[in-house]
Q: What sequence folds into this?
């Protein structure tokens, strides 16, 4: 059950890691209402499926039903959950399959929301995030004929596909950017909950900074939440006040507050006092703008969700398997828009370190 596999050829992750800009139109596509939301509620900036997220071959998914359950960050977190929903929207567009989501407002909703889709005979139900691991395990064990999948956790069950990422590798690369571009030699990291997946972001980032700038110091601040923008804003204020000029966040919706704090500061700051944010999961410059987003650490949750779901349609669902995706799969890395604010010589250094990681010359830490 712990067999690690590469994604089947259907994933076809684009080597450039270019993320197509999301449209602003409402394409909820029948998303299920959250426990406290009306049935018509949809993300305020509903994601449009990325054209690069699917292979060119046509697959008929009519009659198939796919669903996802978010963690407490919600589907409109502008990063992790939203990226997963984009993957299902791509599946709907490309194959004709039906897709829905259910938002979880608190941890007690996880199992209830998963079981809702299992009872309704969905072909595949996704748990989006490490925090849903126990609930997916419970639902899978009590419903052996159902198929489930999870992002960022490993659930050992014959009817579950587990998808994890080498976040530490991509975070190392944005650490290289931060280490080479800081002017103050003070850099911040804002995490959501202190859990293994976020720890991989932190450790990779710190290692990347140290590799190119041993004089720089990275201050760490965990907020304890993925859905509290106010906590992200307060954490960012503390780090910027202490002299940080660049902050990398791995905090889901909480990270929106980091951007808000940076934007407020830059309104009145002199050019040489400008602060930056490094986004996460998606190309967050598309949401928050190039004036504050230095770069982002892409984590192609959308492609993983699309690919595994498509495999289900094609009868190739990787049940009971663990798939780990990293730099070698072009599943993590920097977006093409990094060229806007990151000088070419820094990007060249990023590419140099990427090749060293892929070749095995550098091993990025995953735990302390």
A:
């Amino acid at each position: 059950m712990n067999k690690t596999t590469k994604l089947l050829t259907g994933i076809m992750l684009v080597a450039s890691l270019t993320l197509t800009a999301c449209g602003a139109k409402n394409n909820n596509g029948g998303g299920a209402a959250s426990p406290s939301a009306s049935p018509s509620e949809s993300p305020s900036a509903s994601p449009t499926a990325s054209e690069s997220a699917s292979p060119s071959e046509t697959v008929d998914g009519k009659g198939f039903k796919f669903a996802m359950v978010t963690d407490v960050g919600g589907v409109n977190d502008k990063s992790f959950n939203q990226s997963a929903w984009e993957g299902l929207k791509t599946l709907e567009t490309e194959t004709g399959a039906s897709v829905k989501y259910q938002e979880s407002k608190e941890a007690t909703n996880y199992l209830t929301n998963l079981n809702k889709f299992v009872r309704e005979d969905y072909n595949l139900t996704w748990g989006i995030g490490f925090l849903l691991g126990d609930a997916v395990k419970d639902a899978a064990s009590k419903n052996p004929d159902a198929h489930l999948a999870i992002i960022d956790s490993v659930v050992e069950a014959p009817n579950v596909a587990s998808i994890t990422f080498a976040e530490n590798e991509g975070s190392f690369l944005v650490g290289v950017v931060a280490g080479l571009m800081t002017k103050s030699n003070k850099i911040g990291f804002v995490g959501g909950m202190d859990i293994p997946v976020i720890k991989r972001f932190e450790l990779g980032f710190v290692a990347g900074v140290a590799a190119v700038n041993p004089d720089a110091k990275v201050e760490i601040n965990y907020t304890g939440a993925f859905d509290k923008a106010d906590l992200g804003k307060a954490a960012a204020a503390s780090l910027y006040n202490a002299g940080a000029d660049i902050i990398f966040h791995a905090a889901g919706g909480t990270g929106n507050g980091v951007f808000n704090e940076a934007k407020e500061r830059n309104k009145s700051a002199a050019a040489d006092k400008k602060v930056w944010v490094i986004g996460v999961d998606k190309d967050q410059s598309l949401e928050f703008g190039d004036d504050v987003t230095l770069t982002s650490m892409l984590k192609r949750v959308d492609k993983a969700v699309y690919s595994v779901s498509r495999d289900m349609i094609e009868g190739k669902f990787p049940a009971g398997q663990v798939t780990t995706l990293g730099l070698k799969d072009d599943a993590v890395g920097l977006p093409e828009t990094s060229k806007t604010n990151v000088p070419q010589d820094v990007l060249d250094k990023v590419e140099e370190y990427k090749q060293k990681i892929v070749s095995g010359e550098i091993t990025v830490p995953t735990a302390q």
Q: What stands out?
A: The radius of gyration is 20 Å. The CA atoms of residues 3 and 16 lie 28 Å apart. Residues 196-212 form the longest helix (17 residues).
